[in-house]
Amino acid sequence: MSDQQFGFIKTDKKFIKLHYNDIILIKGMGNYVEIMTEGGKKYTYYKSLKELIESLPNEFMRVHNSFIVNVTHISSLEDNHLILPNTKVSVGKSYRTCLAEALSKRML
Fold first, then answer.
1. Which residues pair with 35 in a beta bridge?
2. SS3 12
3. Which domains does the chain possess?
4. From CA 54, how far away is CA 51, in angstroms rounded?
5. Fewest CB atoms within 10 Å of the CB: 47, 59, 82, 107?
6. CA-CA distance, 40 to 101, in Å (whole number)?
7. Residue 106: CB partners within 8 Å, gap ≥ 6?
């Protein structure tokens, strides 16, 4: 299953196909998540961040108690904030080391 390029979510009584490379950010809201995609679309989905991160490909990383980001969409890291298209996300203290390791693997 590691070669999957898309997944389905159920929202508004229908199944929607989402390509993983289109997902920029996933925000946790209790038992729900809000998935933000390229083009500014947002989808609300009934699943916790903890459950969701286990089913996502390696490009996704939890960077805060409330956020999962697609590492391929990170524009820059300034202080303790990730700059993504149209948004800025704080990096939690407990996630900084893991994020630094992941980014160092992608250094040129």
1. 26, 43
2. coil
3. 6-104 (2.40.50.1020)
4. 6
5. 107
6. 29
7. 71
Among residues 17, 61, 77, which one has the least CA distance to residue 41? 17
Q: Are 19 and 5 in contact (CB under 8 A)?
A: yes
Token representation of residue 34: 């809000």
What distances in angstroms separate CA 5 from CA 18, 42, 56, 59, 70, one per listed residue? 9, 19, 10, 11, 13
d(CA 77, CA 24): 15
Amino acid at position 89, single letter? V
Q: What is the pLDDT of residues 86-106, one digit of tens each?
A: 899 999 999 999 998 888 888
3-state secondary structure of 58: coil
Q: Which of 28, 20, 32 is nearest to 73 (CA)?
A: 20
- Structure token digits, residue 24: 């920029």
The rounded radius of gyration (Å) of the Cα atoms in the chain is 14
